[in-house]
Design goal:
By secondary structure, the chain is α/β, with parallel strands linked by helices. Helix content is 44%, strand content 17%. The chain has a single domain, classed as TIM Barrel, CATH 3.20.20. The longest helix is centred in the middle third of the chain and has 24 residues.
């Protein structure tokens, strides 16, 4: 079952986005694309003001945690420590924004050699376990987003190592289509019970273009059909340009109508 629908928006652009989102009757996914707006000190005064503006506009909100330079599996212990602290700060902001979940990236680089991959994964799992425990304390779900992973194996290993109910998945349809070397449907088939959030955008199968839904090669109906009957409530975010949101919303609604027939 699909729940609230959101639009991707940088934390610095919330004020400008609110009128448009109210008109579209869509929620907001608040993106911390830089830790400068979040860490090393959680900037509560500014964030609480933004949270209040969202509440007054009666918009549903979800949070995308910081991701540029964030790497829980880094060889550098300072980067691992910083990454963990920044992600935990992101979790704390979920409480202010009344967000039920926070999306995060793995930071994994597919080009790692097998031995280096194992070391990276061990460090990543160790750090992620602590971040998940912190999310659990705040009653926030963590939705791990597929990015540059070429297949589903890394996610399978992570979920097997951390079977915590607060660790979920965010399926990015664009990433699965242009970065993956397996059929995108494999992500749905393997992790249907873990998927709690979707990032929806289209592309040409070669680059992450964030096109309007229906403009590229992503097979949305094929990917969404198995999830439409999920026992979980799956929220979603349109990761497209603001001008493409209305068209994407119409396209998504048309798919939902077809799936119900």
């Amino acid at each position: 079952m699909f729940g609230d629908r959101h639009v991707y928006c940088s934390v610095d652009q919330i004020a400008d986005a609110i009128p448009h989102l109210k008109e579209l009757e869509l929620g907001i996914e608040i993106v911390f694309d830089s830790t400068e707006t979040l860490w090393p000190q959680v900037r509560w005064e500014d964030l609480l003001e933004k949270a209040d503006s969202i509440r007054k506009a009666n918009l549903k909100a979800t949070v995308h945690g910081p991701f540029h330079g964030i790497n829980l599996g880094s060889r550098d212990s300072h980067i691992r420590e910083f990454s963990e602290a920044a992600l935990i700060a992101g979790i704390e902001t979920c409480v202010s924004f009344h967000s039920p979940l926070m999306v995060l990236h793995t930071g994994f680089i597919p080009q790692l050699a097998p031995k280096s991959r194992r070391k990276w994964l061990d460090s990543f799992i160790s750090g992620l376990e602590r971040v998940v425990e912190e999310a659990s304390k705040h009653k926030v779900l963590l939705a791990l987003e597929n990015t540059y992973e070429e297949d589903t194996e890394l996610f399978a290993e992570v979920f097997e190592s951390i079977p915590h109910p607060h660790l979920r998945m965010c399926l990015d349809t664009g990433h699965a289509t242009c970065f993956g070397k397996v059929e995108p449907l494999q992500w749905v088939e393997r992790f249907a019970d873990r998927i709690s959030h979707l990032h929806l955008s289209d592309n040409d199968g070669a680059a992450d273009l964030h096109q309007s839904l229906g403009a590229g090669r992503v097979e949305f109906q094929r990917l969404l059909k198995p999830l439409s009957d999920s026992a979980n409530t799956i929220t979603l975010t349109y990761e497209v340009a603001g001008s493409d949101v209305p068209e994407s919303e119409i396209y998504f609604r048309s798919i939902m109508k077809e799936l119900k027939q």
